[in-house]
Amino acid sequence: MTENLQISQLGDPALRQIAQPIDNVHDEWVQTLINNLMTTLLSSNGVGIAAPQVAVPYQMLIVASRPNLRYPNAPTMSPTVMINPRSLTHSQEIVKDWEGCLSVPGIRGLVPRYKSIAIEYTAPDGTVRQHQLTGFVARIFQHEFDHLSGLMFLDRVESTQDLVTEQEYLKRITINPD
Ligand code: ZN
């Protein structure tokens, strides 16, 4: 039985905590957290989630790009659970694109991120994996990875003029779908 966890909202100190590494991915609480985090993500139209968003200050995140009501143009991938993730290298090129956050409902912002990034993480079965991520998926990773350091996408926006409501955002991507 998995649980749909409550998502902390902007202003909750839980979102500003520094997440701790997970020592043993085979611990029961870790496997329970994986299942609950996945359930919470899938039921909330998110494309990613990090454990600090459900007030659990440990280094776990899920990247799960797929088209949905909040991101109609997102590429499809199978949801990937990443434990103790770290960045290895990244492109020099930086791209600005729209982001939202389950912890910041109703707001979208233009956020600069590395276009591609090489990462390493521990999978739920305990194996260490490396991936090269590009584009929207690289963006999701960088967004979720920031949550592990207590950072929100709002901290990365270059100007308050780069902030819009979700309604305005949907209008823009419908008119100009790239
Ligand atoms: Zn977020």
Taken as a percent bin, the fraction of beta residues is 25-35%
Rounded to the nearest angstrom, the radius of gyration is: 16 Å
**DSSP summary: helix tally:** 3
Proper CATH architecture: Alpha-Beta Complex
- Average pLDDT figure: 94
Count of individual domains:
1
User: Which H/E pattern describes the elements?
Assistant: HEEEEEEEHEH
Let me know the CATH homologous superfamily: Peptide deformylase
Poorly predicted regions are none
Main sheet strand line-up = 1-2-3-6-7
- Give the CA-based shape: globular
CATH topology assignment: Peptide Deformylase
GO biological process, one term: translation
Keywords: Hydrolase, Iron, Metal-binding, Protein biosynthesis
Function: Removes the formyl group from the N-terminal Met of newly synthesized proteins. Requires at least a dipeptide for an efficient rate of reaction. N-terminal L-methionine is a prerequisite for activity but the enzyme has broad specificity at other positions.
Family: Belongs to the polypeptide deformylase family.
